[in-house]
Structure formats: structure tokens, C-alpha cells
Design a protein that fits this description.
- The chain is an alpha/beta fold.
- It has 2 domains: 156 residues, 3-Layer(aba) Sandwich (D-Maltodextrin-Binding Protein, domain 2), CATH 3.40.190; 151 residues, D-Maltodextrin-Binding Protein, domain 2 (3-Layer(aba) Sandwich), CATH 3.40.190.10.
- 44% of the residues lie in helices and 16% in strands.
- It has 14 helices and 10 strands.
- Strands 1, 2, 3, 4, 5, 6, 7, 8, 9 and 10 form a 10-stranded mixed sheet that branches.
- Helix 2 runs antiparallel to helix 11 and helix 8 crosses helix 9.
- The longest helix has 28 residues.
- The N and C termini lie far apart (92 Å).
């Protein structure tokens, strides 16, 4: 008498156990070039908040090429990268898809996201001026780097580094290639040493009396002064003042970390949910604390070290426009022999 019911229950259990895991557990797959230690706290917080499992593939480089080669079979749902140029490259490779999100549009300033919704900034860092303690500057314009009064007093890393090509590309957006070439030649004439090293070397060389001013990223100030870079770097950080430069008719040049939804995302809903979480107050606070980056969402406080640098007014030029001048900026660097 019990044989038919038992057979029916057995068949039901077999069919349930045969379902793919994704049908019973929400998940999202990320491909990222961001360092694991910087984003894992964010992903852990997202999973704790939503119950969605995050599977992550960390790539040193070649993100766009990897996803393009995988085609429709790519498991990637979210593509995360540092530098606006890398995000634009993802769009150019055809591996992203536009999304419409009121949450993202409200949180991310227009110049820090793709106009069509292909990518969004999640955090930013400013290109700032380090100065010797005896150099008193209440303000500074990027244009003034070429002023002859700074001859033999400027330190900067390679002009071909993405941090600098972005700044130079922003200058092109304002003034055009011809004026930017003259400006770069003027900056080169003012160098205290050959362009090279890293941003923190600028602070080190100011301490060593090699230069009076240097260009560097804001988050390095946090890394130096906090002690996370070691005792020597604390000395470098304490040896400098920091000014937030602006273009004469604009704001401070910034670059970003950001993310996009992959073209062939199998978990699109969860992908959008993750991006929206990453611009929440909770996640933006984690960004600020993890690597001394500026939150992109208004009203979320930066780390106290970064907040002490002053109020940041982000340059109005859309990053997509800045990126469009990257190649031209790189060519001008070579043309004026900036790194020679």
C-alpha cells in the first residue's frame, strides 16, 4: 500500500538534488584587478548583508582580453578595475553592458561614470601637490608646474605612468595638444631630477632637499602618515605639506577604481545589486578606511588623514573625455623627451 507514495517521494528528492546550485543559492562572479586585501572586506560585508555568495577571480592584468576570449561562456558577472582608462578599455572591447540604476546615478557624480551606464566609479584618488614645509602655498594650479620660478624644484614620476598621462590628458581637454606640449616642456625644464620612481619618492626627495614640490596621489599621504608603509615613510609623510591643486577654470584631477556589469553576465540582478551596495554608506566607509581613498558618494566621510588635506572639488571634465586624450598625452611625453 505504501509502495506508490514512497516511489513518488523518491522521484521528487532525486529531481531536487539534480538542480544546479545556482537555482537554490544566489551568487555573483567577479573578475578584478584590484588587490585582494583591498576589496575582500567589501565583498564579505556584501555577503553578510545580502546572503549572496561572491566568487572572485583576481587578475594581475589582461582583464578585458580574458573576458573577450571567453565570449558567451564567460562566468564573469562583474568586472572591477583600477583607473578610468581600464574601464573604458572594457567598453571598447565590447565586454560590458549598460545598466540603468537610480541608486548608482544618484550616488556617483556624472563625470565619474559612463554616460551610457557601462561603468561606475566606486572610489577615487586625487592628484595632489606635495610641498616642503618651508614652501607656503594656500592654493596651486596644475598650470603653474611650468612656471619658471619652480626651475630645478619639481619632482615627478615617469610621464608615461598612467597617473601622469591622465593628468596630462586632462590638460589637453582644457587647452588642446599644442598648449599642452608647451606646458609639458616647461614642466620638464623645472625638474629637479629625471622623472621616475614612485609618488612616495617625491615626498622622500623633498625630505632629502632634492626638490621643493612634487606631484603624487592623495592616498599615498594616508599610507605614509599612518605608518602602513613603515617607519621611514612616516618621516616622508611628516616632511611635507599637501595642497589640492586645481585647473584654473576647474577642479582637482582625480582617477578612480570602478566596476561594470559583464556583457554575458549570468547573474545580472545580483551584479547590479553588488554595484549598488558598493556605493552605499556602509561600503563607501569601508573604501575610505581600507586604502585612504575618497568615497564617491557625497556625505560619506573620508579617512581623517585624507579629510585633513582640505575640501576636494573634483574636476568637471568627464573621465571618459580625459581617457580619450590618453594616447595623445603619451605621444607628447615622448615628443618633449619628458622622461629623458
Amino acid at each position: 500500500m505504501l509502495r506508490q507514495p514512497i516511489l513518488a517521494v523518491t522521484a521528487l528528492l532525486t529531481s531536487v538534488s539534480a538542480l544546479p546550485l545556482s537555482a537554490t543559492a544566489a551568487e555573483v562572479n567577479i573578475y578584478t584587478t584590484r588587490e585582494p586585501g583591498l576589496i575582500q572586506p567589501l565583498l564579505d560585508s556584501f555577503t553578510k548583508s545580502t546572503g549572496i555568495t561572491v566568487n572572485t577571480v583576481f587578475l594581475k592584468d589582461g582583464l578585458a582580453e580574458r573576458v573577450a576570449s571567453e565570449g558567451e561562456s564567460s562566468p564573469a558577472d562583474v568586472l572591477m578595475a583600477v583607473d578610468a582608462g581600464n574601464l573604458v578599455d572594457l567598453v571598447d572591447k565590447g565586454v560590458t553592458q549598460p545598466i540603468q540604476s537610480e541608486v548608482l546615478n544618484a550616488a556617483v557624480p556624472a563625470q565619474l561614470r559612463d554616460a551610457d551606464g557601462n561603468w561606475f566609479a566606486l572610489s577615487s584618488r586625487a592628484r595632489v601637490l606635495y610641498t616642503a614645509k618651508d614652501v607656503e602655498l594656500a592654493s596651486f594650479n596644475y598650470e603653474d608646474l611650468a612656471d619658471p620660478k619652480w626651475k630645478g624644484k619639481v619632482c615627478i614620476r615617469s610621464g608615461q605612468h598612467p597617473y601622469n598621462t591622465a593628468l596630462f590628458a586632462d590638460h589637453i581637454a582644457y587647452y588642446g595638444a599644442e598648449e599642452t606640449e608647451k606646458w609639458l616642456a616647461g614642466v620638464k625644464d623645472n625638474l629637479a631630477r629625471k622623472a621616475g620612481g614612485g609618488d612616495r619618492d617625491g615626498a622622500k626627495d623633498i625630505l632629502g632637499g632634492i626638490c621643493d614640490i612634487a606631484i603624487g596621489n592623495s592616498y599615498y599621504v594616508g599610507l605614509m602618515r599612518s605608518g602602513k608603509g613603515g617607519e621611514d615613510q612616516v618621516k616622508w609623510g611628516e616632511a611635507i605639506n599637501v595642497v589640492l591643486p586645481t585647473f584654473k577654470n576647474g577642479g582637482t584631477q582625480v582617477n578612480i577604481s570602478g566596476a561594470a556589469v559583464a556583457k554575458n553576465a549570468k547573474n545580472k540582478e545580483q551584479a547590479v545589486q553588488l554595484l549598488e551596495y558598493l556605493v552605499s554608506d556602509e561600503a563607501q566607509k569601508i573604501y575610505a578606511e581600507a586604502n585612504y581613498e575618497y568615497p564617491v558618494k557625497a556625505g560619506v566621510a573620508a579617512d581623517p588623514i585624507i579629510a585633513s588635506l582640505g575640501e576636494l572639488t573634483i574636476d568637471k571634465t568627464p573621465l571618459s573625455d580625459v581617457v580619450s586624450h590618453r594616447k595623445q598625452a603619451s605621444e607628447l611625453v615622448d615628443k618633449v623627451g619628458f622622461d629623458n
